[in-house]
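Ticket #4471: complex job returned nothing on first submit. Input attached below:
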Amino acid sequence: MELVMSAFPVVIIGAGPVGLAAAAHLLNRGLEPLVLEASDDVAAHIRDWGHVRVFSPWQYNIDKAARALLEPSGWIAPAPEGLPTGAELVELYLRPLSRLPSIAARLRLSHRVTAISRVGFDKVKSADRASAPFVLRVSTPTGEADILASAVLDASGTWSQPNPAGADGLPAIGEVAAADRIAYRIPDLLGRDRMRYAGQHVLVIGAGHSAANALLDLAQLAEQSPGTRISWAVRSTDLRRTFGGGDADALAARGALGSALRRLADSGHMELYAGFKTVAFQQATDSLTVTARDGRVITDVEQVIVATGQRPDLTMLRELRLGLDPWLESTAALGPLIDPNLHSCGTVRPHGAKELSHPEPGFFTVGIKSYGRAPTFLMATGYEQVRSVVAFLAGDLAAAAEVQLELPETGVCSVSLAGSPVNADCCGGLAPAGADACCEQDATAKAAGEAGCGCPPPTGTKTGCAA
Ligand SMILES: Cc1cc2nc3c(=O)[nH]c(=O)nc-3n(C[C@H](O)[C@H](O)[C@H](O)COP(=O)(O)OP(=O)(O)OC[C@H]3O[C@@H](n4cnc5c(N)ncnc54)[C@H](O)[C@@H]3O)c2cc1C
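Support reply: We reran it on our side without changes. The output follows.
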C-alpha cells in the first residue's frame, strides 16, 4: 500500500519555546503538528536554568502566532519590558501555551526521539526519496514506537550536550574521573545547589553569559558565606566579548551582565586566570589541581563549574542527509552568517526556510540547534525561523522568503578594556559615535541599507560581510 504524505503530521522534536511556536504557526496555517518532547513537562532545558533571569524582555520572548492562540483563552501577556527568569518564561508563557486544547492534543510528553529516517529508505537510496514519509523512532513510556511524519522540524536544542572543560574541545585529562567535583552549565548557586558551593573554593571555566551568571551568583554567595573563594579561568586573553557592549548593547540587561562581571573582575574578589587553556584535572586530598597547557596550575579547587557552551547532538540524525557547517555544526547556509570567529557583535542577517534546510527534503533544523555551536541565538530569531519554515511547508514561498527580523544588537566591538588596545582590524575600527553598529564597516553597510556584517575574515576563511 502506498503511503500518502499528507496523511501524516509535521513532527516537531522538542517542546521548547521554538518547538511550541512552530506548532502554533502550523495550526495557524491549517497544517497538523505533532510535538514530541523527551521530558515529562514542556521546556525541560529552560526549567533546568529556571533560576537565571534572561536578558531579553518579554516583548522579544513571545511568538506572534503563539500569542494569537493564547489571547482568546483569557491569557494576560506579561508587561513587555519585564525580564523573566527561565522559570517565569515557563510558568507565564510556555506552560499556558502547551495547555491550550489545540496544542495539548498534539503534544506527547515523555516521548524521546532516538533516530529518524525515511520509510523504505536508508541514507544511500535516492530515487523518489522526497516522496517517502519520515519515520521517527521514539522511546515512550510504553516502549519503543515508530511515528510517521510528512516533514520534521528538529527543535531539540543543545542544552543537554555541554562542551567539556578541556581547551582543545576534548575532555581534559582526568576530567571524567573528577566528575563528582564538576558541574556543567549553571548550577542554582543561591537556591537548590547552595550547600554544595558555600564556603568552597569554586573555579568557573568559560567566558559566555552562563559563566557570567555563575560568577555573579558566586560573588553573592561569597558575601553571605565566608570562606567562599572564586577563581575564573578563561581560554582567551581578550575579554572584550565577555564583558560585552555595556551601554551600547540594545538589550540593556545583557549589557549590564557584562558590565557587572567586569566590575567583579576589577574588584579583586576573584582570581582571574586569562589565557588559561585547561588540559588536566588532578586529584589531591579533598580538592583538585587544574593545569593549563602553559604549565600554570590552580590548586585547592573544591568545585568546578564548566560553562563552556554546548554542541548539538547529531546522533539521532545519522540516517538523514545533512548539510552542516564544518566547524559550527549549524545548518550549512547559516554558518557564514553566525560564525563567532567573524561575528563579534552577534548581528545576524534574517534567515528562514532556505538557510535551515538540508539536502534531506522536508527536514529542517530550527531553534538554538540550528546555530550548532554558535552562542548568539535569541528566541526572537527562532520565532522568525519557524514562521518562514511553516510558510514554506504551506506552499507560501513568497512568505517563506520574506524573512524579517529586527534583532537587538550588542556593541561589543566598541568596548575597550583598560590596557587592552582596540582591535584596529575590527571592520576598519570603531563604529562612529551614536551608530547602532559594532564597528565602522558594519555601520557603513547599515547606513547603505544593507544588513551589516561582522569583522573581516582572516585570509582563506569564510566571508564575514553581507554581499
Ligand atoms: C542561560 C540561558 C539564558 C538565555 N537567555 C536568553 C535571552 O535572554 N533571550 C533569548 O532570546 N534567548 C536566550 N537564551 C537562548 C535561547 O533562546 C534559549 O536557549 C531557548 O531555550 C532555545 O529554545 P529552543 O526551543 O531552540 O530549544 P530548547 O529550549 O533547548 O528546547 C529543546 C526541547 O527539546 C527537548 N528535546 C531534546 N532532545 C529531544 C529528543 N531527542 N526528543 C524529544 N525532545 C527532545 C528538550 O527536552 C527541550 O524541552 C538563553 C539560553 C540560556 C542557556
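Residues 5-160+311-401 form a domain with the FAD/NAD(P)-binding domain fold (CATH 3.50.50.60). Closing as resolved unless it happens again.
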